[in-house]
Structure formats: structure tokens, C-alpha cells
Design a protein that fits this description.
This protein is of the alpha+beta class and 279 residues long. The chain has two domains: 129 residues, Diaminopimelate Epimerase, Chain A, domain 1; 103 residues, Diaminopimelate Epimerase, Chain A, domain 1 (Roll), CATH 3.10.310.10. It is built from five helices and 17 strands. The protein has a 17-stranded mixed beta sheet that branches.
Length: 279
């Protein structure tokens, strides 16, 4: 067992789902607690390890695992779909299980091994009411009063989706941070741009709050699929092409299921010297 001292190395794993990359720390045996300072240090791609999100595994009382998520800027995230899939895939491979449950701030999530290297997670029902997303005031969440007529969706964290003619042509490095911190979003927001490729087929790019441009985002993919279905642009089962690859979303009566590949890249340790510098 790790004693939590900065003089003890800290073991971690690195995963990615469609290029959406994560550091995962397993604290089921105890060890050092994650703080905003540790999250920021780990998230630094030049001086630390680098990640889109940091996930911490704890023992679950009413689930197989309990997860908490951190952004690279040291803020917390209520949901992280691709990290949830990565951890579920790893745990099922380790235990031989074909299904398990994970407790997150989003609620109790179900995961399934779909075979052929694919893992599915039910991210729960989308939040469509302005107070639950949340937004700053009452409004129609299907048509926000912002340039571009975006859609707001809650998936355990807030999302703002712009449907455009060509997602590739949008300067998301400008639109993303401006929208993320718009006063309309008291908890900031993730931002997506998407266009329809064909029947039930979307192309999407994403800006994640507290992170920036990422190659993929699971909860963002769910939000875009829900927004597209609500707008009548697609059905409730869609393929989404992201910068990092393809993910499949199925908005069912029991929640929004996302299915895609995962990868365990490596397992390593943070040195005592690194930890002492941020103690």
C-alpha cells in the first residue's frame, strides 16, 4: 500500500480513447489523495505526464468502482465518457467480467464488453432543462440566444453544440474559449461544432472546458447526438467522426450509450522528486 507520502513513488496508468487521453490513479488500496496542484502538475505535457482528464479510482459501495475526474487546469469534471470506457475495459480485462457498474458524479453507469476491442458505457439520460444543465436563466435549450443558434445539453457536465456547414472550417480555438466562459454558462461549458455527413452520420470537433482542443470527448459525443436528434437532423442512433476516430452513440430509453475502442498505453510511477516539488 502507498502511504501517501511525497517520498513514495505514485503508480499511474495512461489510457486513451480515440486520442482522448487520460492518466488514471487507482486509490482502492489507499495512497496519496489527488489535489488541484497535483492534477495541474500531472496535466502539464512538458513538465508532467499530460492528459485531457485525470481519473481517480476508488472502491465503490454500491458499484464495482467509483470514479472522480479532474481537468488539466486543476478543476473537477462531473463526467468523462471516454475515461469511463477506458477504465471499464481495463477492469473487465483484469477480472474477466463482461459487464460492470461505475459510480460517478453523473450517477451509476453501466458498462459492457461488446467484443472486437469495443467497450460501451451508458452515460445516463441527457439533461434538457435549463436549470439542470445548468444555464444562467430560463430559456429554450434547443435554441440558445447566442450567435450560431447552438443547443445546450447536460451530460453530467454542460455542453453547447453549434451545427455548422463545415466543422473543419470553424476556428474552434477562438469560438471554444469565448463560448466556454460566456455568462450564459455559470459552470462554463464544453463546446462542439458539428455538421451532417449523411443519414445518422455526423462530423464533430470539440473544445473541452478546462482543457482546450481535444481529439475526442465521450460526453460531448453524447451531447451532440442528443442535440442532433432533438433538432431532427438525425435519428437517435448515430455514427460520429471525431479528430481521433469514430464513436457510435445510441440514445435509448434507458440512457445514452456510447461504444468505441480503448487503449492502455503504459503503466509507470511518478518519482518522489516530482511529488516533493508539488507537496
Amino acid at each position: 500500500m502507498q502511504d501517501g507520502s511525497p517520498h513514495t513513488p505514485l503508480r499511474f496508468m495512461k489510457f486513451h480513447g480515440l486520442g482522448n487521453d487520460f492518466v488514471v490513479i487507482d486509490r482502492r488500496a489507499g495512497g496519496r489523495a489527488v489535489t488541484p496542484a497535483l492534477a495541474r502538475a500531472l496535466g502539464d505535457r512538458h513538465r508532467g505526464v499530460g492528459f485531457d482528464q485525470l481519473a481517480v479510482i476508488e472502491a465503490g459501495r454500491d458499484a464495482d468502482l467509483a470514479l472522480t475526474f479532474w481537468n488539466a487546469d486543476g478543476s473537477t469534471a462531473g463526467a468523462c465518457g471516454n475515461a469511463t470506457r477506458c477504465i471499464a475495459a481495463h477492469e473487465m480485462a483484469e477480472t474477466g467480467a463482461r459487464a460492470l457498474t461505475l459510480r460517478t458524479e453523473r450517477g451509476l453507469l453501466a458498462a459492457e464488453d461488446r467484443g472486437d476491442g469495443l467497450t460501451a458505457v451508458n452515460m445516463g439520460a441527457p439533461l434538457l432543462d435549463w436549470q439542470r444543465i445548468p444555464l444562467a436563466r430560463q430559456m429554450d435549450t434547443l435554441h440558445l440566444p447566442l450567435n450560431g443558434d447552438p443547443v445546450a445539453t447536460g451530460m453530467g457536465n454542460p455542453h453547447c453544440t453549434f451545427f455548422v456547414e463545415d466543422a473543419e472550417a470553424v476556428d474552434l480555438s477562438t469560438l471554444g474559449p469565448a463560448t466556454e466562459r460566456d455568462p450564459l454558462f455559470p459552470e462554463r461549458t464544453n463546446v462542439q461544432v458539428a455538421h451532417v455527413v449523411g443519414p445518422d452520420h455526423l462530423r464533430m470537433r470539440v473544445w473541452e472546458r478546462g482543457v482546450g482542443l481535444t481529439l475526442a470527448s465521450g460526453s460531448s459525443s453524447c451531447a451532440v447526438a442528443v442535440a442532433a436528434a432533438r433538432r431532427g437532423l438525425t435519428g437517435r442512433r448515430v455514427r460520429i467522426d471525431l479528430d481521433g476516430g469514430r464513436i457510435d452513440i445510441d440514445w435509448r430509453d434507458d440512457g445514452v450509450w456510447m461504444t468505441g475502442p480503448t487503449a492502455h498505453v503504459f503503466t509507470a510511477e511518478l518519482t518522489p522528486a516530482f511529488l516533493e516539488a508539488i507537496a
